[in-house]
Amino acid sequence: MTASAKRKEKFQNYISSLKFSLYCITHPFDGFWDLTHEKRGSIAAANTILILTLLARILKLQFTSFIFIRVYWPEINIFLYIASVVFPLGLWTICNWGLTTLFDGKGRLSQVYMATCYGMTPYPLIQFPLIIFSHFVTVDEAEFYVVLSALSLVWAAALILVAMSQIHEYKMSQTIVAVIATGFGMLVMIFILLLFFSMISQGVAYFISIGKEILFRI
Amino acid sequence: MRRRTKRVLGPVLGAAVFALGAMGMTAHAEKGYTYCYDYWGDVQYSPDAYETVDVLTSEELGLDVKLSSPQGMFVSGKYIYVCDTGNNRILEFERDDTDTIRLVRQIDSIQGDTDVKSFNSPTDVAIGEDGCMYVADMNNNRVVKLDMDANYIMEFTKPDDVTFDQSISFIPTKLAVDTAGRVYCIATNVNKGLLKYENDGTFAGYIGATPVTYDWIDYIWKRLATQEQRAKMENFVPTEYDNIYMDYEGFIYACTSNVSEEEVDAGSATPIRRLNMLGSDILVRNGEWPVAGDLYIGSGGGYSGPSLFTDITAMDNDVYIGLDRMRGRLFAYDDQGRMLYCFGGNGSMNGYFKQPAAIEHMGHDLLVLDALDCSITLFTPTEYGSLIFDAIEQFQDGFYEESGESWQSVMDLNGNYDMAYIGIGRSLLRQKKYHEAMDYFRLKYDEDNYSKAYKQYRKEWVEDHIVPIIVIVLLLLTVPLLVGRIRKTKQEIDRADIFKPGMIGNPEAGDGRQQ
Fold this sequence. Notes:
The structure holds two protein chains of two kinds. By secondary structure, chain A is mainly α. Chain A contains eight helices and no strands. Chain A has one domain (2-183). By secondary structure, chain B is of the alpha+beta class. Chain B starts with 8 loop residues before the first helix and ends in a 20-residue tail after the last helix. The relative contact order of chain B is 0.10. The model of chain B is unreliable at 1-30 (pLDDT under 50). Chains A and B meet through loops of A and helix 9 of B.
């Protein structure tokens, strides 16, 4: 009985932390402060929001009216498509945490991740209804779709900015500098990753060719 | 996502075409003779729209002296006029039935009141409304007008006008004549557009010049560059036209081979134009892809660079066909600028060309003059080609249902043909079958027509369901109000003092706060 009661309580915590994302998007300053400082958010809810975002992005391709999105299916790789969100998010989280740790940021790695995911809430929230909405408009009315779609992105970006300022306890000017610095940091990381992978592949190729050479000589 | 790099496919396609050609298969059985671009710009091979009836060389045309580098051709009714440029003569042929072409006469000298009684490299010929013949007599620096019996009437010479640089000679190459006998001609080294002459021979100015534009980046570069660097830079010279054709409505179709690869890649190239009387380009470009010939212009099969249109002809159903001398292909577009099909190629088989110089149409049949092979290739539409023309013409004449049926037959022959789907859709749209039409437009990503159909469908749907819609809207508005009212009343009843024991006669405590 106690085990099931515990599970029930855990589930209720999860639901309330997920519901808290709706509070965050309407009261960002208050919400993101409480998110970490009052422990109102949870990683599970953050993961859920991330999965919903990915789902929205994928379902959008298939189910949005062709007026807005036309997909050349032979060129779509679903894993690359998912990675196009997850990879930048990972880079962002690590890079932002790395930089803010050096400059008095109070947020921990998991908190950066959680706050960023909570900040993405408007995207699935707007994009899912938009998928349905897209079937009820003509080209002349396409502006509604475009504006709403852009709104989901702008809103999310603004929320992430606020989230960073709240979890790190930064002023807005500091936050903007930190975000710009994070952008550059991400570029540096991509450069190093590319360098790393090309070195590795060359190294591997070197040993493979040595192996082949030996096999030929034996 | 949809404008993908075009160069990737170029070599592959070229190699494929080359390989097929090299295998020596018959021209019309192979995959790859006729194709069309789909919505994504992918090559979709299609059944042949045209088949060669015959390739007529000098022998088959019944000529004693062989053709030598013929440059110009004109069709008037059943008569075909060919400029035998190398032999300084004009040949007139008559096409009796579909297959035989008979020599009527050769014109190699001019009778009447002129000092120069012969032609010198005539490059183009046209027949006016009144039956007079106009010849671009290139090396005699004149356009000469002859009557039906080759008697001299008048000539159009170098314009005595300040706008014409008097130091250069007047070298007319191509010409067209309108119904009023006005002559439009292209002259070498003139880049101000077409020279226009009134029917009395006076020069009436230029029309159709490309406006010279340059962007601010070029401007800054030119400012920074030295004199020598500037000289090496590309000059922003307006286009010289290669050929013109006067269509049945009196508009001039003009083509130019002066296009750069960058322009074609960017989709801003306009090698084919339709000029009105003021010289502005009124060609409709509603297709998914620019009216510029091939999309894949990377090197492949020994050719590299954009399609170079050397001649153009327009039929009475507003289908126009451009002749590409780069790859020897014929590109057909409809009145909306959507590509119908492309066929042909360089080679020596029937239906291929060595150096195509001129194209004309006779009804739906096409004649292509080859300057190197010295031959005329006669094409006639296949069943597939005729069905396409039927569908287009029926739609233009207002027989929408029949047009839809014709497009359906086209689709039976070629299921990869976007035009057929959109054609059926447009026919259904006109028949007010909006929902069916939407399906066809959706399949081929025609958003404008889809929206037209959808708008009507939505309107009809709302009109049909107006009662339930009003009921639902009313319910949505009234139910929350009602619920709110009921709740409020209930609360009031609950809080009312009279139901609380011991409250009677003590109204100060009866504000309900203690509950």
